[in-house]
User: Which sequence fits this backbone?
C-alpha cells in the first residue's frame, strides 16, 4: 500500500468538498493511503506573500516542519490544490537554494519549537502521484465504466505547471498529463489550447471585470471545442469557472453552461463509484445533462437555468465599450 | 509605517534595483532584464495595469522609487507565472511583483486598496484561526468596498449556493491546535523581516 502525507488545504474542507470526497473514493479504489498532516495551517495562497515575505514563508514552512516531524517513513507530501502545491514547493525550493534565507525561516519556526530541513520532503500534486506512481496501466485496469463519448476539455491552470521547480510536468504551457489521464478513462479529449490559461485567481474579488474576461476566454474556448465538461485539478480554478460562470454570462450577455468538474470525480465515475459519493450535485452549473449523455445519472445541482436578464430594471450604467480596463478606471456608483 | 519619510534614502544607499533584488528570495536575476517585453505580452491582466512589467522594470532600473511603488502593476498580477517561465533571462518576475507589493505597503504607497485589503482580510483570518475562511472573506471584502458593492445582487444567490449546494459552513473555521505556536512563529518572522 502506498502511503503519503496529505496536506488538504482550506478549500478542500469548505468550497471544494466535492474534490475531497471524490479524491478519497478514488484513493480507496487505487489502494493509496493519504495520511493527513496533523494540525496543518493555511498556506497563505497568493495573499500573504503580497504582504510580508518572512511571515509568509514561515507560515508555509510550518506545514513542512510538521510534515517532516510526522513523516515516519513517508517522504512525500501530497496536495490536491495547485496554490498549496506551489506554495509548499516554493518555500522548500527557496529555503534550499538560498541558504541564509532558509536559516532565517528556521529562526522564525524555532519560536514555535519547529524546524524544517529543506529538501527532506518531496512536495507533489495529486495528479502527479496518480499518473507517475500509480500509472496509466493500473488506472486503465480499474475502469469499469469508460467515459466513451464524453468530450472533456482538460484545464490545468497556472500554478501546477508553472514555474514547476522540480520539472515534474511535461511542459510549462501545454502539459499533457491530464489529457493522458482522461484518455485512459475512455473520454474523448479535446486538444484544448487554453489548458494553462489563467482563471483569474483572486481577481474575482479585486477586479471582477478582468476576472470575467479571463473566465470567458476559457469557457468560450471549451464551448468552441464543443466540450461537454471542463475538468480541473485546482479548487480555485474550479470555483472561478463554475461559481462565477453565471456572473460572467451576465456581464457579457452570454449563455454558456459548461459544467466544471474535478478530475477525481470523473475517475470515480469511470471506476464505477456512485455519483453521490463523488460530490456530484455540488457544482453550480449542473453536470447532469452532460453526464446523462453517457448514461450516468448524477444528482441535480440546480434544476432551473439562470433567469434571462430583463432589458429594463434598476438604473445601471450602460454596457461599457470593449477594451475597457479594470474596475478601478470606472467611476464608483453613487 | 506611512509616518516614516517615504523618500528617505535606504540605509547603505542600495539602488532601488539592488534593494528589490535583495528582498526577493533566491536569485531574482532582476538586473538581467533586456527590456524585450515578453512579460507584458504574456500577461493576462496587462490591460488593467498602468505600466507593463517591462516598463516597470525600466523605471525600477532608473531608480524611480515612488512611481514604481505607486504603480498598480504588482497589484494586478494574478500569479499565473507566464512571464516567469517565458522570460528569456529567467527573471523571477512573479516573485519580484510580491516584493514590490511588500515595499509599496511599507512605504504607504497603495493608491487603490482593493487588492491589499483583500490580502489583509484574508490573512487576518489565517493569523487568528490558522485557516482561511472563504465565505467570511468574500462577504466582508465586498461589503467594505463600495466599488464592489454593485455585485451584491449577484452575490446573494451565489452565497446561498455556496452554503446550500457546496455545504460551506457560514461559521469561521475551527482554530488549529498550535495557534499560539503559530502566532509566535509569525511574530518572530515579522521581527526578522524588519531587522
Assistant:
Amino acid at each position: 500500500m502506498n502511503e503519503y502525507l496529505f496536506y488538504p488545504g482550506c478549500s478542500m474542507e469548505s468550497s471544494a468538498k466535492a474534490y475531497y470526497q471524490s479524491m478519497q473514493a478514488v484513493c480507496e479504489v487505487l489502494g493509496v493511503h493519504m495520511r493527513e498532516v496533523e494540525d496543518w495551517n493555511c498556506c497563505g495562497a497568493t495573499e500573504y506573500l503580497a504582504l510580508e515575505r518572512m511571515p509568509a514563508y514561515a507560515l508555509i514552512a510550518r506545514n513542512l516542519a510538521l510534515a517532516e516531524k510526522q513523516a515516519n517513513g513517508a517522504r512525500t507530501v501530497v496536495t490536491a490544490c495547485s496554490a498549496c502545491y506551489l506554495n509548499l514547493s516554493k518555500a522548500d525550493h527557496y529555503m534550499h537554494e538560498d541558504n541564509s534565507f532558509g536559516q532565517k525561516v528556521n529562526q522564525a519556526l524555532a519560536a514555535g519549537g519547529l524546524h524544517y530541513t529543506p529538501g527532506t520532503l518531496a512536495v507533489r500534486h495529486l495528479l502527479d502521484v496518480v499518473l507517475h506512481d500509480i500509472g496509466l496501466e493500473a488506472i486503465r485496469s480499474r475502469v469499469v465504466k469508460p467515459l466513451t463519448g464524453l468530450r472533456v476539455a482538460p484545464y490545468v491552470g497556472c500554478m501546477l505547471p508553472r514555474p514547476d521547480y522540480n520539472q515534474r510536468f511535461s511542459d510549462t504551457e501545454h502539459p499533457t498529463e491530464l489529457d493522458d489521464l482522461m484518455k485512459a478513462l475512455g473520454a474523448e479529449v479535446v486538444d484544448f489550447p487554453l489548458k494553462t490559461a489563467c482563471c483569474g485567481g483572486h481577481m474575482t474579488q479585486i477586479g471582477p471585470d478582468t476576472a470575467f474576461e479571463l473566465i470567458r476566454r476559457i469557457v468560450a474556448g471549451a464551448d468552441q471545442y464543443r466540450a461537454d465538461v471542463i475538468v480541473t485539478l485546482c479548487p480555485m480554478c474550479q470555483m472561478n469557472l463554475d461559481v462565477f460562470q453565471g456572473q460572467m454570462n451576465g456581464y457579457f450577455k452570454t449563455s454558456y453552461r459548461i459544467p466544471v468538474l474535478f478530475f477525481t470525480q470523473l475517475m470515480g465515475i469511470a471506476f464505477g463509484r456512485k455519483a453521490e459519493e463523488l460530490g456530484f450535485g455540488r457544482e453550480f452549473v449542473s453536470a447532469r445533462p452532460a453526464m446523462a449523455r453517457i448514461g450516468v445519472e448524477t444528482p441535480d445541482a440546480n434544476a432551473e437555468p439562470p433567469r434571462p436578464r430583463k432589458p429594463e430594471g434598476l438604473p445601471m450604467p450602460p454596457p461599457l465599450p470593449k477594451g475597457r480596463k479594470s474596475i478601478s478606471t470606472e467611476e464608483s456608483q453613487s | 509605517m506611512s509616518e516614516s519619510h517615504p523618500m528617505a534614502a535606504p540605509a547603505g544607499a542600495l539602488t532601488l534595483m539592488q534593494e528589490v533584488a535583495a528582498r526577493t528570495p533566491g536569485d531574482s536575476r532582476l538586473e538581467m532584464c533586456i527590456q524585450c517585453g515578453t512579460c507584458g505580452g504574456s500577461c493576462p491582466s496587462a490591460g488593467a495595469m498602468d505600466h507593463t512589467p517591462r516598463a516597470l522594470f525600466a523605471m525600477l532600473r532608473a531608480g524611480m522609487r515612488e512611481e514604481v511603488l505607486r504603480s498598480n502593476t504588482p497589484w494586478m498580477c494574478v500569479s499565473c507565472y507566464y512571464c516567469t517561465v517565458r522570460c528569456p533571462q529567467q527573471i523571477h518576475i512573479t516573485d519580484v511583483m510580491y516584493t514590490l507589493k511588500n515595499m509599496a505597503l511599507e512605504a504607504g504607497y497603495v493608491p487603490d486598496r482593493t487588492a491589499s485589503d483583500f490580502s489583509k482580510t484574508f490573512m487576518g483570518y489565517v493569523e487568528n484561526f490558522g485557516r482561511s475562511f472563504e465565505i467570511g472573506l468574500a462577504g466582508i471584502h465586498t461589503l467594505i468596498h463600495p466599488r464592489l458593492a454593485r455585485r451584491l445582487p449577484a452575490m446573494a444567490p451565489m452565497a446561498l449556493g455556496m452554503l446550500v449546494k457546496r455545504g460551506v459552513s457560514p461559521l469561521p473555521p475551527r482554530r488549529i491546535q498550535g495557534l499560539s505556536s503559530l502566532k509566535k512563529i509569525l511574530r518572530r518572522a515579522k521581527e526578522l523581516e524588519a531587522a
